[in-house]
Specification:
This protein is 38% helix and 10% strand. It is of the alpha+beta class. Helix 2 packs parallel to helix 3. The radius of gyration is 13 Å and the shape is globular.
């Protein structure tokens, strides 16, 4: 899936570097993005909104990343 995304991004002149990590999704994504050696410019994350009423519009992972990441976050619904 990451390779397909890289190819589609390259066709539009965008350099995409994908990384698959395992663990607590929100925490690990924010921690990875906040590490300056990873050279992250933008976090793009989907939102399903299947959580509690508080997180109905974003979802718990995207909500966590939005508030904890030090980089810009683009949420796709």
């Amino acid at each position: 899936m990451l390779e397909d995304a890289k190819v589609r991004a390259a066709q539009k002149g965008i350099q995409l570097v994908g990384k698959a990590i395992a663990g607590d999704p929100g925490y690990d994504i924010a921690r990875f993005a906040n590490n300056s050696k990873n050279k992250i410019d933008l976090i793009v994350i989907g939102a399903r909104g299947l959580g509690s009423a508080k997180e109905i519009f974003l979802g718990s992972v995207s909500n966590y990343v939005l508030h904890k990441a030090k980089k810009p976050v683009l949420i796709v619904k």
